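Re: your question about Xaa-Pro peptidase family protein

S., sorry for the slow reply, the queue was backed up all week. Below is exactly what I fed in.
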Amino acid sequence: MNMDLDAMGILPPTHRPEDCEPTQQEIPQILLDRLARVRAQLKSRDIAAAVLFDPAHVRYATGSRNMQVYSSRNPARYAFVPAEGPVVLFEFSGCEHLASHLPTIDEIRPAKAISYYFNERNTHAVTEAWADEIDDLIQRQCGGGGKVALESATSQAAFALKERGYRVLDAQEPLEQARAYKVPNEIKMIRSSLRAVEEGVRQLEASIRPGVTENEAWSKLHQHIVATDADFIETRLMNSGPRTNPWFQECSDRRIQSGELVALDTDVVGRYGYYADFSRTFLCGRDAPSQTQKDLYRMAYDQIQTNMANLKPGVSFKEYAERAWEIPPAYKSRRYFALAHGVGMNGEYPYIVHREDIDDKGYDGVIEPGMTLCVESFIGHEAGGEGVKLEEQLYVREDGQVELLSDYPFDARLLG
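Result:
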């Protein structure tokens, strides 16, 4: 069962091959356009260069993919991205050949791994050599500069650059702003990731039966995304029965029982490095759902349907929160932490919180063309029992129309 998108003013998902897969001619331009967005954000802040360690940021700026999970915890590869001038990828030793074909990268050098794990007592000396090399690049390629953006590096690396006279800023702000607005044809990569993950979820759902463990069912999604050239699943958010409420209970070896709800948040870093992020709740077995299960599901469905319809360009984050579906009092304390959030290569800027949370952790902004966002719902009673997780991924197009990106049916039994 699917929503009446026409009544909501939302365009349906597309499955046309030309919309869901970039051509070999389009891919290099997408990479160059993403790099241009990063450079524009650096220039607007008068930042001479960014040194990027986060593998998602490195991939966004350069298109380079290598040991994404390993690199997320080890500062062993990084990219030097100046506001103007040659881009240098510092690649893990022995891997320099992997990115030699990319149009975004002008030079590849072996990285200096700046961590105790690699260097033990030599860590300070290696970090100093790392800072000297970055300083030399800035002096030669950027004509010097007072500001350098850095993220996910060691504190010692930041101190070393500061000692060389630089003002060290957090690179996350310019990178998040760059990534929030999709460049031409980037959306094709996102759709490609979603279409692959949707098939993986179909295989997961088909495996749900009484007696199977959560992990066994969840593994079906893993197998399929690896087979379709995805990277990894970022969280372990699949659970069943009493473990569905409160939310965020991780997938386990618990055996799913007939008549229980099974809740899933995909959180897949999929094809081309793009996040496929939607949520569904299933019913295990052939029995009819209970009225309580149907009531929970209907509330979650109504919440995302209302909040999807409110997603329009020009609406401020605070306006969006004020117009949001009203969560019944007994379910408010276990609400999902965001009404909606940006999505690209990961969950990203912006996060739009509930009206109750604006003063404590909210910020304002405007929903704009080029953004892709996920609309979230979790409904679970404060006294316990099962819960329902639903989520959809959408695109605010340049023409001002909103397009539903994710395409997976809702459970007709639970909506009945």
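The first strand starts at residue 10 and ends at 11. The two ends are 10 Å apart (CA to CA).

Happy to talk it through on Thursday.
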